[in-house]
Design a protein that fits this description.
Layout lengths: L4 H13 L2 H8 L3 H15 L4 E3 L4 E3 L1 H22 L10 E7 L1 H6 L5 H7 L3 E7 L13 E4 L8 E5 L4 E8 L1 H7 L13 E5 L8 E5 L2 E5 L5 E4 L3 H9 L4 E5 H10 L3 E3 L5 E4 L2 E5 L6 H15 L2
Parallel strand pairs: 3-4, 3-5, 8-11, 8-12
Antiparallel strand pairs: 1-2, 5-15, 6-15, 7-12, 7-13, 7-14, 9-10
Length: 301
C-alpha cells in the first residue's frame, strides 16, 4: 500500500509536538484527523510508531528512526516546492526560527515588526531554545546562535549588535550595605544572583581585563534558569545581590539608576550573534526574504 505524504506529515507533527492536541494547535488540523492519519500510517508500515498514554505521546524506536530520516527529507520536499515562490510577486509561506532567549529579548524585537510589515504574506514561528539543535530535525528553517556554537557547514549572517558585553550590577542600597567589589574574586564574599543552563550546569562568571581571564563560581540567594532574566534582574533591583547579564538587558535599569555597574573594567566583551541555516539545501522563499532583510538592516549599522 503506498504511503500518503499527508500521513507522514501528520506523524511528523505529532512526534515533534509530543501530543495530538498540541500538534493540532500548531498544524491547524483536528486531533482526531491526526490520530487517524497516524493509525493509517502504522497500519501501512506494519509497525507501531508512537507510544500513547493518557498524558504523553513519544516515538517508539522505529518511530524515532523514521523521524530522524523523515524530517530532513520532508524539509527538502518543502524547499523544492518553495521554488515556485520565486515566480510570485512577493514571497509567502512559513518561516520557522530557533533562537536563544537572549536573541528573543535583544535582537528580534528590533527586526520582526518591520519584517512582517514588509512581507505580510509570510507567517513567522519562533521557538525559544538555548540549546544547540539540529535545525532540520526540529523542523526549523534557521536559527540564531553565537559563532562558537556554529557548525562548519552552516551559512552564517551577522544579526543584531556586533559586540556585546556581560556586565555586573547591583542596587545602590546593596552596595552601600555590602561594599563595592574591586576585583572579581571579591564577589566570592557577595550575594550573587546566578543562572542555570537547561542542562543543569551553573553559568560560570567570566571576567577579562587585558590578557587576564578569571572564572569564578560565586554563591547567593537565588539561582534561576538562564531564560528567566526578569526574575534575577528584579531581585538585583530589590537589593538582594549582584547580577551578571547581557548589558543590553540591564541597560534600562542602569540608565534609571535602579542598578549601578560594578567591575566595569572587567566586563567581558564578545562578538554578536549570527543567523544561521544549512548550506546544503535550497533556501525557502520566506527565509531568503528574511536573510536579505537582515543584511539590509545590518548594512546601515
Amino acid at each position: 500500500m503506498p504511503t500518503d505524504l499527508a500521513d507522514l506529515n501528520a506523524f511528523l507533527a505529532v512526534a515533534r509536538a509530543r501530543g495530538f492536541r498540541e500538534a493540532a494547535r500548531v498544524s491547524g488540523a483536528s486531533a482526531s484527523a491526526l490520530s487517524e492519519a497516524v493509525r493509517r500510517l502504522e497500519a501501512s508500515l506494519g509497525v507501531r510508531l508512537l507510544n500513547r498514554t493518557t498524558r504523553s505521546v513519544a516515538p517508539t524506536e522505529a518511530g524515532q528512526r523514521l523521524l530522524e530520516r523523515l524530517a530532513p527529507a520532508l524539509g527538502e520536499v518543502e524547499a523544492a516546492l518553495d521554488v515556485v515562490n520565486g515566480f510570485r510577486d512577493r514571497p509567502a509561506g512559513t518561516l520557522r526560527l530557533n533562537v536563544p532567549v537572549s536573541a528573543a529579548r535583544i535582537v528580534l524585537p528590533g527586526l520582526i515588526p518591520a519584517f512582517l510589515k514588509a512581507y505580510p504574506e509570510i507567517r513567522l514561528e519562533v521557538t525559544v531554545d538555548d540549546s544547540f539543535v539540529d535545525l532540520l530535525a526540529a523542523g526549523c528553517d534557521a536559527g540564531i546562535r553565537y559563532d562558537e556554537r556554529l557548525e562548519q557547514d552552516m551559512i552564517a549572517v551577522p544579526i543584531g549588535p556586533r559586540v556585546q558585553r556581560f556586565v555586573c550590577a547591583a542596587a545602590p542600597e546593596y552596595l552601600e550595605r555590602r561594599g563595592r567589589p574591586a576585583h572579581p574574586r571579591d564577589l566570592l564574599n557577595h550575594a550573587c544572583l546566578r543562572g542555570r543552563f537547561a542542562s543543569g550546569a551553573l553559568a560560570v562568571w567570566e571576567f577579562e581585563r587585558g590578557d587576564e581571564l578569571i572564572r569564578i563560581d560565586p554563591s547567593g540567594p537565588l539561582t534561576a534558569s538562564t531564560g528567566v532574566f526578569d526574575l534575577v534582574i528584579d531581585a538585583a533591583v530589590q537589593g538582594l545581590g549582584v547580577v551578571r547579564l547581557f548589558e543590553d538587558l540591564l541597560q534600562p535599569h542602569l540608565d534609571s539608576g535602579a542598578l549601578e555597574p560594578v567591575l566595569e573594567d572587567w566586563a567581558q566583551s564578545f562578538s554578536g550573534p549570527f543567523l544561521y541555516y544549512p548550506g546544503r539545501r535550497l533556501v525557502p522563499g520566506p527565509l531568503r526574504a528574511f536573510v536579505d532583510f537582515v543584511r539590509g538592516v545590518q548594512a546601515y549599522k
